[in-house]
Structures are given as structure tokens and as C-alpha cells.
Write a structure and sequence with these properties.
Layout: H1 3-25, H2 30-55, H3 57-60, H4 63-66, H5 69-73, H6 78-95, H7 100-125, E1 139-140, H8 144-150, E2 157-158, H9 161-180, H10 188-205, H11 222-251
Antiparallel strand pairs: 1-2
Helix pairs in contact: 1-2, 1-7, 2-6, 7-9, 7-10, 9-10, 10-11
């Protein structure tokens, strides 16, 4: 089995299992939690691939290459998957009257863990590679398959950005799991997840070398622009939710 697919599938299944367990502890119907997770995963796969195609539009060259086997094999962009998953989650949560903020809290740790394991798959495949480096932690890819699918430079020492992000997301998982048991209001864990992801992703992007297009004098990546919106959303939730919770307590 391809290592990339095996690790991504493992990350998805383990993250979903943890999310459903957390959902039960938050008083959410486990069947609804499973269905929500499956819908979000499918939306995430589509969203990540769409943003990948947008980012790589200049290199794909022809419309036929968008639907080629090599494009389907290439990794997606997590930010696109996150946004698409959130959109589908909003629809499903409203349809089944699930407590939205509690569900977001329950799914946040599993999402971080699944992301961490998935990045190990990226490292195995050579996608999402970093810039050239001469530091001792640099990694060198040699398999021609990585070059043909992801455009990975071969025989050059690169920043292991996949491992950087995997480590950060694993740390996020432990922090969010700890917070879930001690949160003071619904949505607190999710707000921390959004802010933590946006800041860590923006930092890791400084070392990425796989973007053909950057903005603002070639300094800002598309993922960093998306991260600005995610960070603002997290800050807004962190500022607004405690006030709403306090107002509900006073009314009660």
C-alpha cells in the first residue's frame, strides 16, 4: 500500500474516532457525530484538492491536467479542506439541531491529530516540501516518483516542513485535549484550535518551497492569506463567546 494513502487514511479514521468519543462526552448523539465526521471528511478532501488546483493553476498548463491521474495523486491544501469542512459542518449541524460550539470543541483535537499523521504521509510522498537548506536537519529526496507527482527537487537538502507541521499539530492535539476537559465556555477549544493552526501554519509557510505563486513581492503564500482569515475568526470567537455565555447565565 502507498505510504501516503495509508497514513492519511489512518489520520482520518483515528481523528474521527477520537472526535466521536469526545462528542459523546459533550452530550452529542454518537450517530450524528459519525455522520457529521464523514461528511466533513469528504468535503475536506474536495476542498483541499480544489485549493491545490487553484494554487498550481499556472503549472498545470491545460484543463486536461487538472483531471489527470497525477493531479489526483498529488496532495491537497489543508486550508481549503478546513474551510470546505466547516461549511458542510454548519449545514449538517443546523439540519440536525446539534449544539454547534460543543461539536466544534469535540472535533478540534481529532482534527489536529489527523492533520499531524497526514503530514507524515506528505513527508513520505515528498509533497509540501521546504526550501533548500544547509542545516543538519535538512532532508534529501531521491525517488523519481516524488518529482513526477509533486515536483519535489531531488538530490537537494530541503527543510522538512512536513515534519515541522506534524510536530506542531501533535502539540496542538495534546493542548486541545487538555483544554476540552477544562473549558469554561462552549467554543473555547475551537477558538484556540483556529488561532493555533493559523499561527503555526503561517510560521511553517516561511520555510515552504513548493508554491509557484506568492503575493506581495513574493513574500506571502496563499495559505498565509487564508490563515489571516482563520486567525481573525478564532480571535472573534475568543472575544465574543465568553460575553455571550455570561449573558445567557444572567438570563438563566
Amino acid at each position: 500500500m502507498p505510504t501516503y494513502g495509508l497514513l492519511v487514511a489512518t489520520g482520518v479514521l483515528l481523528g474521527l474516532w477520537i472526535s466521536v468519543r469526545n462528542s459523546e462526552k459533550q452530550g452529542i448523539n454518537p450517530e450524528h457525530a459519525w455522520n457529521l465526521g464523514i461528511y466533513v471528511v469528504l468535503a475536506g478532501i474536495i476542498g483541499s484538492k480544489v485549493l491545490y488546483i487553484i494554487n498550481e493553476w499556472h503549472t498545470l498548463g491545460h484543463i486536461s491536467e487538472i483531471f489527470s491521474f497525477s493531479t489526483l495523486q498529488a496532495g491537497g491544501v489543508f486550508s481549503g479542506g478546513l474551510l470546505a469542512g466547516l461549511a458542510v459542518a454548519v449545514w449538517y449541524i443546523r439540519k440536525h439541531n446539534i449544539p454547534a460550539l460543543a461539536a466544534c470543541d469535540a472535533f478540534s483535537p481529532g482534527l489536529a491529530l489527523g492533520h499531524a499523521i497526514g503530514r507524515l504521509g506528505c513527508f513520505a510522498a515528498g509533497c509540501c516540501f521546504g526550501k533548500e537548506t544547509h542545516h543538519f536537519w535538512g532532508v534529501t529526496f531521491k525517488d523519481q516518483l516524488a518529482s513526477s507527482i509533486s515536483g519535489t527537487p531531488l538530490g537537494i537538502s530541503l527543510q522538512p516542513t512536513q515534519l515541522f507541521e506534524a510536530a506542531v499539530e501533535l502539540a496542538n492535539f495534546f493542548v486541545l485535549t487538555w483544554m476540552l476537559k477544562r473549558k469554561k465556555f462552549d467554543g473555547q477549544v475551537f477558538a484556540v484550535y483556529l488561532m493555533g493552526y493559523a499561527l503555526s501554519r503561517s510560521f511553517v509557510e516561511l520555510f515552504r518551497g513548493d508554491y509557484p505563486v506568492r503575493y506581495f513581492s513574493d513574500r506571502v503564500t496563499p495559505a498565509q492569506l487564508v490563515s489571516v482569515g482563520i486567525l481573525l475568526a478564532g480571535l472573534l470567537l475568543w472575544w465574543k463567546l465568553p460575553r455571550r455565555s455570561l449573558a445567557e447565565q444572567k438570563r438563566g
